[in-house]
Amino acid sequence: MKHPLLDIIALSLLVLFINCKSQRPLVNSEKSIAPKNVILLIGDGMGLSQISSSFYFGNTNPNFERFKHIGLIKTSSQNGLITDSAAGATAFSAGIKTYNGAIGVDSDTLAVELLTEIAAKKFISTGVVSTSSVTHATPASFYAHVRFRSQEEEIAAQLPRSSIDFIAGAGTDYFFKRKDHINLSTMFSNQGFILDTLALNRPKDFSLEHKIAFLLAPNHMPKMSEGRGHFLSKATQLGLEYLSQNENGFFLMVEGSQIDWGGHNNDSSYIIEEVRDFDRVIGEALDYAQKEGNTLVIVTADHETGGYTLASDKGNYNKIKGSFSTTGHSATLIPVFAFGPGSENFQGIYENNAIFHKIQNSVNWK
Ligand code: MG
Ligand code: ZN
Fold first, then answer.
1. Which of 21, 181, 262, 333 could anchor a disulfide with 271, C-beta 3.0 to 4.6 Å?
2. Ligand nearest to the CA of 88
3. String of b and e for 190-205 (b: at least 16 CB within 10 Å)?
4. 138 CB-near residues (< 8 Å, 6+ apart)
5. Of the ligands numbered here, which is closest to the C-alpha atom of 47?
6. Which ligand is nearest to the CA of 263?
7. Nearest ligand, CA 330
8. Which has more pLDDT, 365 or 141?
């Protein structure tokens, strides 16, 4: 015969167990609250050595250090072990592997739905900021659909009617000095845009009643070394201020476009300055996310450029000299840094197009 005390012990253990169990979902649901806003920061051509440069050539602790959740992506495209920026960005913006050169289209050249288009359907505001022409491969992949990245006038023509609410970058030549002589400024105003081609000035009417476009240079913004100043972080600030007026949330993509160009030029100081500038943007995004608490920040790159390494200078282990193995892109895995609700999903090693799906799975506007 069993002692009744055993039953009491068993019962209390069971109650304890149930209590523990009932606590657990609470903790889980707290952890997996869907972010309202998503900020995706892309350092074009920014591999681990480019990132590392900010730890050796900066004055302050790089903002990269503020991330707890870090992963790696495999960046191959549908038709290349090494991707270009078009296929690389389309992997992020549409969740597919496509051919090098493709902007928002799949390997059959058919348009695929973009993150910004999905967001807009749910009344989420969207923004794109870059230091290249906004018609360049990376920014274009977030609003346009063309067979090849070189169709920049076609990409420009698609922008005013796209889902984008806030855009800042360069590229007036593609909008206002076109071979077909169509002046796109009428199209911008017809679509409710306030257009500024002179400076990053906060318009008087900064409400969501209007969309906003800053196109501030003919082809691309100047290099940092040529006096670009804090365009990228100021445009990001302005974008955040504008987009955050939407109570439903926002999606913002910011590209440090010229890190890639430093790599193609095999110019280490170009890379270092552009990465440092990009790091300031990371700071802006993280400060915003820390203050607001409902924002997922993801920092990554489409691929590495230059086969850049921080090698010793002539064997001197106390002196670093950037060196290169190519003037093109490389196939190395690329770091992903994530912060905020949903950031834990970005740990591990996965394909570049999984970023799209991880964002989709984190937000509740899918
Ligand atoms: Mg780019
Ligand atoms: Zn490149």
1. 262
2. 1
3. ebebbbbeeeeeeeee
4. 42, 44, 85, 88, 89, 130, 132, 255, 257, 302
5. 2
6. 2
7. 2
8. 141
Is-contact 270 225, C-beta < 8 A? Answer: yes
Q: Which residue has the higher pLDDT, 7 or 218?
A: 218
292-308 burial code (b ≥16 CB/10 A, e <16): eeebbbbbbbbbbbbbb
Centre of ligand 1 from the C-alpha of residue 133, in Å = 9
Helix (H, G, I), strand (E, B) or coil at 135: coil
Q: How confident is the model at residue 45 (pLDDT cuts 50, 70, 90)?
A: very high
Distance (angstroms) between ligand 1 centre and the Cα of 223 equals 14
pLDDT attached to residue 7: 59
Residue 177's CB is within 10 A of a number of other CB atoms, namely 11
Distance 255 CA to ligand 1 centre (A): 7
pTM of the model: 0.91
Sign of the CA dihedral 238, 48, 134, 210? Answer: negative
Asked if residue 334 lies in contact with residue 300, where contact means CB atoms within 8 angstroms, the answer is yes
HSE, CB side, 13 Å, CA atoms: give it for residue 70: 9
pLDDT digit string (tens) for 106-165?
999 999 999 999 999 999 999 999 999 999 999 999 999 999 999 999 999 999 999 999
Using the mean position of ligand 2's atoms as its centre, give its distance from the Cα of residue 264 in Å.
Answer: 7
Confidence of residue 183 (pLDDT cuts 50, 70, 90): confident
Query: Can you give the pLDDT at residue 17?
Result: 47
Rounded to the nearest angstrom, the distance between the alpha carbon of 272 and the centre of ligand 2 is 16
Could you tell me what percent of the chain has a pLDDT over 90?
A: 88
Q: Are residues 92 and 40 in contact, defined by beta-carbon separation less than 8 angstroms?
A: yes
Are 313 and 319 contacting, i.e. CB atoms less than 8 angstroms apart? Answer: yes
> Which run of H or E residues covers position 74?
strand 69-74
| Phi, psi (rounded to 5 degrees) for 172 | -55, -35
125 forms beta bridges with 250
- Is the Cα torsion angle 69, 295, 118, 236 positive or negative in sign? negative
The residues assigned a catalytic role are: 85
- Is the per-residue pLDDT at 32 higher than 90? no
For residue 265, the CA-to-ligand 2 centroid distance in Å is 10
Mean pLDDT of the chain: 93
